[in-house]
UniProtKB/TrEMBL annotation, chain A:
A Pfam match: WD40
HAMAP family named among the record's database cross-references: BOP1
Organism this protein belongs to: Mycena belliarum
Entry GO MF terms: ribonucleoprotein complex binding
GO biological process: maturation of 5.8S rRNA from tricistronic rRNA transcript (SSU-rRNA, 5.8S rRNA, LSU-rRNA); maturation of LSU-rRNA from tricistronic rRNA transcript (SSU-rRNA, 5.8S rRNA, LSU-rRNA)
Similarity comment text for this entry: Belongs to the WD repeat BOP1/ERB1 family.
Protein name from the UniProt record: Ribosome biogenesis protein ERB1
Residue segments, region Disordered: 1-143, 288-320
The organism's taxonomic lineage, starting at the top: Eukaryota, Fungi, Dikarya, Basidiomycota, Agaricomycotina
Bias-annotated ranges (Polar residues): 23-32
Function: Component of the NOP7 complex, which is required for maturation of the 25S and 5.8S ribosomal RNAs and formation of the 60S ribosome.
Top-level taxon of origin: Eukaryota
UniProtKB/TrEMBL annotation, chain B:
Gene Ontology molecular function, alphabetical: ribonucleoprotein complex binding; RNA binding
Lineage of the species this protein comes from: Eukaryota, Fungi, Dikarya, Basidiomycota, Agaricomycotina
The protein's name in its UniProt record: Pescadillo homolog
Keyword Nucleus: yes
Region Disordered: start-end pairs: 471-505, 550-620
UniProt keywords, alphabetically: Nucleus, Ribosome biogenesis, rRNA processing
Top-rank taxon: Eukaryota
Amino acid sequence: MTAADIEQSKKRKLASRDDLLPTETSNFSAPKQSLEMLSDDEGSDDAVSDDGQVDDFPEIDAASDSDTGGEKDTDEEDSGGTDEEDFLAEDSDDSLDRDIFPKPKTIISDITGQPKRVYPEIEPDYDSDSSTEDAPNRVGDVPMHWYDDLPHVGYDMDGKKVLRPARGDELDRFLQTVEDPSAWTSAFDKTAQMDKPLSAEELDIIRRLYANEVPDAGYDPYEPMTEWFTGKGKEEVMPLSAAPEPKRRWVPSKWEKQKVMKIVRAIRQGRIISSKPKTASKQEFYPIWSEPSTSHPPPLPAPKPRLPTNSESYNPPEEYLPTEAERAAWEALDPEDRERDYLPKKHASLRLVPAYDRFIKDRFNRQLDLYLAPRIQRVKLNIDPSTLIPKLPSPQSLKPFPNYKSLKFAHSMRTRCISVSPDGAWVVSGDEGGMVSLWEVNVGREVKRWKFETKIGALEWCPRVDVCYFVVGIEETLHFIIPPNLPSSVLLLTQSILAPTALPPAPETPSLVKWVTPPTSSWSPDMAILTVQLPQSSGLPKQIAWHRRGDYMATVSSGGPQGGVWMHQITRRHSQAPFKKIRGAVQLVLFHPLKPHFFVATQQYVRIYNLSEQKLLKTLTPGIKWISSMDVHPSGDHLIVGGYDRKLCWFDLELSDKPYKILRYHTRAIRSLAFHPTYPLFASSSDDGAIQVFHSRVYNDLMTDPLIVPLKILRGHTVKEGLGVLQVKWCARQPWLVSGGADGTVSLWCS
Amino acid sequence: MGRLRQKGKAGAAKAYVTRTSAIKKLQCSLADFRRLCILKGIFPREPRSRKRANKGSSAPTSFYYAKDIAYLAHEPVLKKLREHKAFAKKLSRALGRGEWSDAKNLEDNKPVYRLDHIIKERYPTFIDAVRDIDDALCMVFLFASLPSNARLPPSLIENCSRLAAEWQLYVMHTRSLRKSFLSIKGIYYQAEVMDQTVTWLVPYQFTQNIPSDVDVRVMLTFLELYQTLLGFVFFKLYTDSGLVYPPPLDIKKDEGGAGVGAFSLQSTSQTASSAPPKAKAVQIEGRTVSGKDVRQAIKSMAGVEADGGEAAVQTADSNSMEVDEEFVPHPSTSDPQSTMTLTTLKALAALPQSLTTSLFSPYTFYLSRETPRSIFEFIVRSFGGRIGWPASSGSGSPFDESDDSITHVIIDRPVLEGTSETTEERERRSRRKYVQPQWVVDCINAGKILLEEPYTQGSTLPPHLSPFGEYEGAYDPTAGLTGQAVEESESEDEDVVLPDAEEDEDQEVQLAEKKALRAAAAANDAASLRAAELAAEVAGVDFGTFEKEVRKSRKKSKAAPKDETEAAEQDMNKMMMSNKQKKLYEKMKYSQNKKASERATLEEKKQQLQKQKKREAKAG
């Protein structure tokens, strides 16, 4: 392709793109030639409307204005002429104007022989409306798509339809562009709905626009300037204002001088340096530590990182290398949880050691530690941990205490309650099946058994030694039972106390509790000699607590009014409720061994009442969620309280309302606690199946704290349905322990 | 009635501020706050009760001391940071408007902060500064090895490598390097400067690239501080030892890859330089003798007696010391017992120099081209040796390979078979000792010249152990197995060996013997022992083995029940501990057990490895 070809194709593109451009420019400044060029193609259309009369028109003198006035009358006269002439006349009337249009000449038509007026040719110069010149289509400036569905594209001057020019299909058009050499210089004419070749002027305009020149060829942008005010003889001699010239025009400014002087002074004093050295100059070092330091204490130095150990070596001993399992464990751990941030690796030679890929990360982590981690100064304890264990006397030196199981007595069901006779020779044990067995401590032989309807809630021997009986608490009833084979004197005395021949006078206020003695004739060892019927719906007596004299007895029932606490007096055969109302559910009660005090354990507190003065003495807060057991030291000054939350609290009643010591060593709930009446021992039993025996020495002087030494953990009961050892009791004169478990066995532990 | 106390007016509520409120108070951005904290060394604190410090909220926040923040508010750097913020705004405005000359003026007068006062504040004495340069050295050595990019301008890298070289020069000059350790992370060096041990880690010479989860801004802020700190520290160190700081750099040498050799140490005055450098070193040594040195000296004395024949190089420069008057203690008249004996400088000087700082002075080393020059040049020169290297490792080698004075060649490549060498080469080879790089490091850690035999070219190296030691009671790979373990392993060995060593016909006899021995082990009282002895005799066990067995079982049985009862008692006594004590006890026990189990696993592994080796030796 030659350069010319390229130019051509460019032009073609341009022409096709800017098809509107020529029409616009033609409206703007349509030269005469272009109009002539256009008229070539429109010849056929013209022939239709003009009948070729144009050729016949003679040359008309344009300057024949003078005739117009005289010929007006003829206009009027000839009004009744032919249609055609009328049309013509009217037409000319409309368009005629005195100033603009010349008068028509009247000539004799050689076709019709009639005279007719002939107007001179209109000269299309600058003033004329060239748009109406000879465009055959007179639709005006309407969107051409209105004619899209019609066979014509508008109307000519005579109101006839201008038919749509034939347009071939794409192939025809293509062929036309190929054949016609002027096709690339033609553009689509909207009004004519066909391609029209562009005139040379139009092409010239396109070329100029393309070359960024002024489109009008006639415009000269570099016209010589016309000088109006300058130049010889054109000077303005008079001033615009008559004001006199101000002084500042010729006197140097004082303020400027002051400002300059300021800068000059600053330069002289060295405050302004003309060429200041750049700020990014190098850091200068000087002996910074030569002048004395401030009194400020230096900040704590950051802890140094740990020094590397053997395992970090590039060539460690082989035992440091991780096994597969260790490696897997290390990789499975989260990077934060890893003890070491690397895996030991062995390289045969230094040249084989690769770069450490976490080097920068390690440095970064160290820096994060330095500025983001709170630092705490910790005193490192450099002690042997075994010194923390309190030094206590060896259990061997604190003998005797129970340390082995000497015999076992079997019940068929859970043994909830046991009691040891005051002389320590007999044990009664009751199970949930309602069976009460009396057996001998030394050999474990069962002497007698009683069967009750419901399960046994509590069981207790009377602490008196001159009489011998025990009380069994079952559903809403207390049975007083005399064991068999008693010496006759003891038997008689017991019978006289429990079933006196002359009943004491009934109290003035009738009690809810009924004391019933069967008739003498029906007395038998199988039957209770005395039965106390607790009020209805008072439930199972959970606990029986004797006063040390053996005359008063307190019971705690699971239900009933006044917390279920009843105080019974044997000699008067009378029962009363000591509390009108009590806060919390009463768990346990106890008599003080020496004083007329009464301990009441509710679910969370232990209250101490003075019975003689009838007032509350103290409230102990053991901090246990649910108290399960309690016992008082024989001296009466110390109390142990156990809870279902595994805690055992030792209270020094003289000292405080808070526990002196809290022991928490059972793994399950504590069920029972017992102080030995004579030996310095106490035992606790728990649902974990263990009984723990402690040495508890209490000193008489107030200065020495009680000494508590764990002695022995007795295991032997099996845990059944989550219940372990339910009750422990001590034998009075021996360091022996009797325990009843949920597995139905009662064990005797001897020293 | 006292004054009513309002909540939040005193105590922890006033003493601590959260980070957000600190930023609010300082009116700076979080990034600026971070930068300030790094530069000033302010770190968060842990209040005793987070709730009390944070108005009852227990949300996870970091707390700072309110006083620290008040202290930051007066910081000149903070002012400069604010100025910089204004400057950045002005500059971007000028650039946006295309006011180039204004922008240039602004750029020229850019506010720049100095950290000198911060260095002085954070390290009031020089010793404080030296104590804290570990991290700074690690960072500088790391950045000296990084490639420069848009975030790390070449000038920064250059400055870091200059500081690294200056430190190495100083350490070499004063011969204060003590230990070195080739680890998988890099090379640890430990030097003793101004009586402070300084440990730093240098990465191996590979290109490191910064991982994406690392905040470079934080690292660069630290580096900024560290560069200033090191500059001042080096200035003091150099001037104290009579050297010019900064040491002049020979650019031509530096371009030739001379590394440390491109810098030349210059004495501050001619008179100082004319004095022999040896005397100066002694003086410095005399000044820096410390309690630690004495302890090490005593330890090494014991060590020297034990190892005897080893060729240990000792430097005894104490003769050159001039005679000082001895301090004589005068006992006080009132309390004659209370005379305190002070260790005097003379007494210290009388001690043999344990630190063999001139360990390599009789030797001349030559580096093979595959060994990293920067490491071994530093180590060897720090211990007084001469070292040369091929031109491929950089320029500035004081001698070339053919030098006759070379005694050791540090080489790290396998032995090639069938290479033909000239007679001259062979002769040279016979005169020199070819050792692997680990030998150099092991020598300086041991403080004596080790035998070259296990370290010869191509041989399997002995394990490289950390010279820094581990915690007390940790597993020691150099010691043999402990008594119990050895005994067990022996017996196990016997058990293992017996069946396959003896023939089948002996097996019944074996069984009888075993039974007898077992009876002896079970025997407690004299009568049963007697019976067991007789049984053993019948079975044909000789008396020696019988005795041994009995003794072993005695030991075991005696230890066992007594321990058991004691343990049971202790367990019971634990019940009486308070909760706090119990927790402390549990914690201590936990860590003890962990250490013990670690040690046990290592010992077990070693045993297994030994057994395996034995088996392999037997098989092969």
